[in-house]
Write a structure and sequence with these properties.
The chain has 11 helices and 10 strands. The chain has about 325 residues and is α+β, with helices and mostly antiparallel strands. About 35% of the residues are buried.
């Protein structure tokens, strides 16, 4: 960490951290260095693995954001200092990107975004799904149920803190009831080619308007199970976030345009189920932040409120599950 911090200061870069990466923000470019961590579902524990994940990140993200991802560059160490883009004594690797202007990112322009802007995003996502490779094995009922069972197992300890016992049991019952009543829909979707290698994290902060280009960046590269799946499950992450923020009209425009483009006849049946899943995942992620010792008390209070809000939204969606 100290060497990365020194590198950022020397470059005059702003340093941002996630639980998986150090991100160095310069005026025109961004360097993302992956942390040497292993969370089971994500393994960056060796330089070779980090190099492979950097290469995969660039390859996958160029599908939806070709102009931004510049490539993978070496990180070297000389005289105890880290140096970027040098082949001498390479110790690590970084993803190099063009810096996207803050004002171009959807999460920063929600108050002035128009429905037509959101429809452009929907058209881009629909075209992407049509072109993405099929990933049939990730569309099975057993895979989806593994994901939802994992969610319920991992959040039970937060019952009474970020989710009520009543909502926890209600969402769990409605989710499992959907499998019993509509389990055949998963095999149908596989046969129709509706399971694709998608993005996995289409959120407001990952959508940017770059002139005429809609750029959707920062897809999940580290775990296929989180990235591949039903196209409706992939697309509805964005409408879930919009509705969380009270932008129901934008969410409606997004979903209507996507369905119009794809002619997906199962949307009415599946969207409440998948949106419940997405909202629940966001509630889980924010709940996990309460156990992170590196996060301050104020940030934890904000995380708790967001977790509660997303779990309430998941309950609302669960009420609409057929």
């Amino acid at each position: 960490m100290d060497k990365v911090l020194e590198l950022a200061k020397r470059l005059g870069a702003k340093l941002k951290q996630t639980h998986t990466s150090w991100v160095l923000l310069l005026d025109d470019v961004v360097y993302k260095i992956k942390k040497p961590v292993n969370f089971g579902f994500l393994d960056y524990s060796t330089p070779q693995k980090r190099k492979e994940m950097c290469e995969r990140e660039v390859l996958l993200n160029r599908r939806l954001c070709p102009s931004v991802y510049l490539g993978v560059v070496p990180v070297s160490e000389r005289e105890g200092r880290l140096v970027l883009e040098s082949d001498e004594n390479v110790v690590d690797w970084a993803v190099k990107m063009k810096r996207i202007p803050d004002e171009s990112i959807l999460s920063n322009r929600l108050e002035r975004v128009k429905e037509e802007d959101i429809r452009r995003v929907a058209r881009r996502v629909a075209r992407f799904h049509e072109e993405a490779r099929r990933a049939d094995e990730f569309g099975k009922l057993s895979v989806m149920k593994f994901n939802t069972d994992e969610n319920f197992s991992q959040t039970e300890r937060f019952v009474g803190e970020t989710i009520s016992r009543e909502d926890y049991e209600f969402i769990k019952e409605r989710t499992n009831g959907f499998y019993e009543r509509h389990g055949d829909i998963f095999e149908k979707r596989i046969k129709e080619g509706k399971v694709r290698d998608g993005h996995g994290d289409i959120r407001l902060e990952h959508v940017a308007f770059l002139g005429d280009e809609v750029c959707i960046f920062d897809c999940i590269e580290f775990n296929e199970r989180f990235r591949c799946g039903d196209v409706l499950n992939d697309m509805c992450f964005l409408s879930t976030e919009l509705e969380f923020l009270g932008k129901d009209n934008l969410a409606r425009a997004y979903e209507e345009e996507y369905v119009r483009q794809t002619q997906d006849k199962d949307a009415r049946l599946l969207l409440p189920f998948f949106k419940c899943y997405r909202a629940y995942v966001r509630g889980k992620v924010h709940s996990f932040m309460l156990e992170d010792p590196s996060i301050g008390e104020e940030e934890k209070r904000e995380a708790k409120e967001k977790a509660r809000g997303y779990f309430r939204l998941a309950r609302r969606y669960a009420e609409g599950i057929p």
